[in-house]
Design goal:
The complex is a heterodimer. Chain A is mainly β. Helices cover about 10% and strands about 40% of the residues of chain A. Residues about 1-5 of chain A have low confidence and may be disordered. Chain B folds into three domains: about 5-95, Nucleotidyltransferase, domain 5; about 100-260, Response regulator (Rossmann fold, 3-Layer(aba) Sandwich); about 285-390 and about 410-605, no CATH class. Chain B has 18 helices and 22 strands. In chain B, strands 13-12-11-14-15-16-22-19 form an eight-stranded mixed β-sheet, with helices on both faces. In chain B, strands 3-2-1-4-10 form a five-stranded mixed β-sheet, sandwiched between helices. Chain B has a five-stranded parallel β-sheet with strand order 6-5-7-8-9, sandwiched between helices. The model of chain B has no long low-confidence stretch (mean pLDDT about 90). The chains are: A mainly beta, B alpha/beta.
Chain lengths: ~375, ~600
């Protein structure tokens, strides 16, 4: 193998970013090509068919299924409200009629002669899709959605919880290696995307949520703190739908780990500017990482090729991402060709890393990621 | 396409997994099919490549370099047929890339037709996202809500024996029609629905599901009678639909299907096929396990009945955190013979989850991962035993003789005492630094009883051989026997519980190795018997212990050696560990020493 490729997360000063905003089902697109949109702008809207309530009318009225249709007071397509009589039996000599009142408001969708089941459809549910990122509409897919393009500073996190939100960037600490505690959270962070340095404590997350911050971003967090904040032990990394009132993103990993200097410097540089963030993470087929998007004005930041992994080479800076050296920084000192027997007894291809302390250690190539200089 | 099996000398097979595409080359050497070279490359079904054939070509190129044989044309396609030392005569493939085949199934009664439908879907290699039935304790509107939330690739509806209920079956269709589940391939995709229920209800189901977004197929009832399952037609239809709809929407698969000389199969379906072939050929009961990063698949063939389960969130990387949550950390740590800080461990587990490709560097880290693997395997096997049952809903005819041994329907058919072969595959088992570690993980998690052969899939080629067995059974069987399985040895374990240190069973080994001894309750020991060696073992259990012939009855068994040897396991079944932590650590430390689990590791590290 000529090259050893190592993964990395995207952190870039400036890049052209395209985002597609789509409705789950067909509806109305409310923007046109060329429109400038803010993150909060509703770009498409529709109504989802309402909830479905099956009612086994044959059982409820104690009649054969084939009789149900004739006993319905409203036919298919008819609308009913809660408490309104829905079906009525003939009774005996016009007396002892059994009346069934609708438990829901909605429209009668079907009446089955086979099962005697009535399908009642509740009121339509409105669905709105926001622009999420400030930019320009470059394409419209009629009835489906639109494409928005803009130049952005873009940062991928490693793990997050909570969905899309946006707000101005505000720093909670001044250095990338500072732990964020509740004391670092202030009342003026309401509506802000708050930036921490190293570990986010559970107290800090709770305080940020109470202060009304829309997002909190840090280098790492303890899994125990995540469990306490969520109220359950997260088993599988498919997140984004948590309703905790705040989006939380860690950029480096779990534990006490400082945010990468470049990431922190980039966020610090844009303090006060609006950022769109999404904590949704999916580490499976179709990998999805949390993101922080900062729309830029022309001349805000020089263009730069993105950084997202690459080939290991002598002298390149890296971070070790597995114990026993988890979180340590260094640079590639040597790339021995032959596999090496690790402390675990496994044979694997390794590299020699010169840590920032000057010490040299041997690490499997799978356990490092390249970082920026 | 008809294949001329006589003239097939070079076979190329790939398995497109979620993360890695693995290719193997099979060649006819001295009149026998042998696996000769292998290559692998990252799967390229995701962006930026979004074309599965790129990964296939890369993995095949690796083989081509090793074998010095040109296997691809200039345009990247597979060179077929073989000529002048280049190309191959047959190319086949399996796939689980892009999340595999995801299905929702429905049946009238959860324990009967819905269970049969689930078995059909799992047997075909699908991941079953949910099972809807009229008695699943959810209210109809909750069921509809659930159907709406799911994004399956296809739906299988069963229900009613032939001539049985029509109404309940139509009711199921009436839940699905208004729910209109959104397929994951976008709104233009027609949702394939297979109806394999009461044939008398087919017309009414068809009328209920007459929607433009549905592509309905009706096949034979998968449970025509309560006492009979007929899973074949439904399973075949699932495979057809998988190829026609699901694969056709996956990036690059149209091209891959053109290349392949046989239909592309879902990976787990292919593994199931090869295990069934072998169980039938050898007339044995087999359990196979494949523990991956996200899921653990368990396959079993007992008395020719095949079952497969997928434990969707039990795995060693993507799902490692879920294993720890489901098993609980104390249960994981009971397999570790030294102290570890739980808060720090939790962070390590999550870091493995978010960076799934990292590998354990330290021995401590490896021991912890193997502890997690034991719990993942144990939980997956427990789920499998609960699922692999005799048919429920069958009326039992009992006589007076059954008074004291009444067997109810729905009992598990998995019987560790009659298990002949336990096959391991998947990273943590296949790549363990020592085979003793692989064997011990299997024994601790599956708790085999009596005499059980242990083996591992050398380079995870069971999927390739599964699809090959459909087109060239002879080649598949030859490669399976000679190159696929690495025999670890045989485990001799007594069922029963006794007092620590008291006699459990005595044993005498005669043949290529001659030895004898007494095994006390709580002990485990290892006897060397090499891969090509065999012997006869005579075991005499004390009262209260069973080795397969009954309580306290002696057994004689031909045993096969292996890279590990013969494991004499007197720890009892069910396997119990001391609850007190210190005591538990001492017990595990003793087992680790007796089984020489990490001795080689320590030596290797010192030598290196």
């Amino acid at each position: 193998m000529a090259h050893a490729y190592t993964p990395g997360l995207k952190v870039t000063n400036r890049m052209a970013h395209t985002i597609v905003r789509m409705l789950p089902i067909k509806g109305d697109v409310m923007v046109q090509v060329g429109d400038s949109v803010n993150a909060d702008k509703i770009v498409a809207a529709t109504y989802m068919p309402g909830d479905v309530y099956p009612l086994n009318m044959a059982n409820l009225l104690a009649v054969p299924p084939k009789d149900v249709a004739s006993l319905m007071l409203q036919k298919e397509g008819g609308k009913v409200t809660v408490g309104e009589p829905l079906a009525e039996t003939a009774g005996l000599f016009g007396k002892f009629k059994k009346i069934y009142k609708s438990p829901y408001t909605g429209t009668i969708e079907t009446v089955s002669e086979v099962t005697g089941q009535v399908i009642l459809r509740g009121p339509d549910i409105p669905v709105e899709v926001k622009a999420y990122v400030t930019g320009k509409v470059t394409a419209v897919n009629p009835e489906i959605g639109c494409t928005i393009e803009t130049d952005v500073a873009f940062i991928q996190g490693i793990f997050g919880i909570g969905g899309e939100t946006c707000g101005p960037i505000k720093l909670a600490v001044q250095n990338c290696d500072e732990t964020v505690t509740a004391e670092n959270i202030t009342a003026d962070m309401k509506g802000c995307v708050v930036i921490g340095g190293a570990r986010l404590t559970e107290g800090a997350i709770e305080a940020a949520r109470k202060a009304g911050a829309v997002a909190l971003i840090g280098g790492g967090m303890d899994d125990q703190d995540l469990k306490e904040f969520l109220g359950y032990d997260l088993g599988v990394a498919i997140t984004g739908s948590e309703k905790k009132g705040i989006t939380v993103i860690v950029t480096e990993g779990f534990g006490d780990i400082a945010m990468a200097t470049r990431t922190f410097t980039l966020l610090k540089r844009f303090e006060g500017q609006e950022a769109s963030v999404n904590g949704a993470t999916q580490i499976r087929a179709g990998v999805m990482r949390p993101e922080i998007i900062i729309p830029l004005e022309a001349g805000d930041c020089e263009e730069e090729s993105e950084h997202a992994g690459g080939y290991l080479d002598i002298g390149l800076p890296l971070r070790i991402i597995r114990d026993p050296y988890f979180g340590m920084l260094g640079k590639v000192k040597a790339l021995p060709h032959d596999p090496h027997v690790l402390g675990s007894g496994s044979k694997a291809r390794v590299l020699e890393v010169e840590l920032t302390s000057g010490e040299s250690v041997i690490v499997p190539r799978a356990n490092v990621e390249l970082i920026e200089a | 396409m008809t294949l001329d099996l006589e003239n097939i000398n070079v076979i190329l097979a790939t398995d497109c997994g979620s993360t890695t595409t693995k290719a193997i080359l099979i060649e006819k050497v001295d009149g026998e099919y042998r696996q000769t070279y292998r290559g692998e490359a990252p799967t390229t079904v995701e962006k930026p490549f979004a074309n599965v054939t790129i990964g296939v070509t890369n993995s095949v190129t690796e083989i081509a370099e090793l074998a010095d044989r040109k296997l691809t044309n200039e345009d990247g396609t597979i060179k077929q047929p073989a000529a002048d030392g280049d190309g191959c005569d047959l190319y086949i493939s399996t796939s689980s890339a892009g999340g595999g085949l995801q299905m929702m199934v429905a049946g009238v009664i959860a324990e009967m037709t819905a269970a049969s439908a689930k078995r059909a879907a799992l047997g075909a290699g699908a991941i079953v996202m949910d099972v809807i039935s009229t008695n699943d304790k959810r209210r109809p509107h909750e069921q509809i809500q659930r159907i709406r939330e799911l994004r399956p690739d296809m739906i299988l509806i069963s229900g009613g024996t032939d001539g049985g209920t029509t109404e309940k079956v139509v009711q199921l269709a009436e839940l699905i029609a208004p729910a209109k589940p959104q397929p994951r391939f976008g709104s233009e995709y027609e949702m394939p629905i297979i109806f394999a229920g009461n044939k008398m209800a087919a017309d009414e189901v068809e009328a209920t599901l007459q929607e433009d977004w549905i592509d309905l197929a009706v096949v034979e009832n998968l449970r025509p009678k309560l006492e009979q399952e007929n899973l074949g037609p439904a399973r075949d239809k699932i495979h057809d639909v998988f190829l026609e709809h699901v694969m056709a929407h996956a990036p690059g698969y149209d091209m891959l299907m053109d290349w392949a000389g046989a239909p592309i199969m879902p990976t787990p379906g292919a593994v199931g096929d090869i295990l069934q072939t072998i169980a039938k050929k050898e007339n044995i009961n087999v359990v196979g396990v494949d523990i991956g990063g996200a899921t653990t698949d368990v396959f079993s063939v007992f008395d020719e009945t095949f079952n497969r389960t997928v434990s969707a969130n039990l795995g060693m990387s993507y799902s490692i955190s879920n294993v720890c949550a489901e098993a609980t950390m104390p249960n994981v740590l009971r397999w570790v013979h030294f102290d570890m800080d739980e808060r720090q461990l939790r962070n390590r587990v999550k870091n493995k989850m978010i960076r799934p490709t990292t590998i354990p560097q330290s021995l401590e880290s490896l021991i912890f991962e193997q502890a997690v693997a034991r719990e993942a395997l144990r939980l997956a096997y427990k789920q499998h035993k609960e699922f692999a049952t005799t048919l429920k809903g069958v009326q039992q005819q009992r006589t007076v003789g059954d008074t004291f041994s009444q067997q109810t329907a729905g009992n598990t058919i998995v019987n560790n005492m009659t298990l002949n072969l336990l096959v391991a595959s998947g990273g943590v088992l296949s790549h363990a630094p020592s085979m003793n570690q692989t064997a011990m993980m299997l024994v601790d998690a599956f708790e085999p009883e009596g005499c059980t052969n242990l083996a591992k899939d050398s380079i995870f080629m069971m999927p390739h051989l599964g699809v090959l067995s459909a087109v060239h059974p002879e080649a598949a069987a030859q490669v399976f026997e000679r190159d696929c399985l690495v025999y670890l040895g045989t485990c001799i374990a007594a069922k029963g519980i006794g007092k620590l240190g008291k006699p459990c069973f005595s044993w005498t080994l005669s043949g290529d190795v001659n030895a004898s001894g007494d095994c006390a309750f709580g002990d485990i020991e290892l006897i060397e018997l090499g891969p090509e060696q065999t012997a006869t073992i005579l075991c005499e259990p004390v009262r209260g212990f069973d080795l397969g012939a009954g309580n306290g009855k002696k057994i004689t068994h031909e045993v096969r050696g292996g890279t590990v040897g013969i494991i004499i396991d007197g720890r009892g079944r069910p396997l119990g560990l001391p609850e007190e932590r210190q005591n538990c650590q001492q017990t595990i430390a003793q087992w680790v020493e007796n089984m020489a689990l990490y001795k080689e590791t320590e030596q290797a590290v010192v030598t290196a």
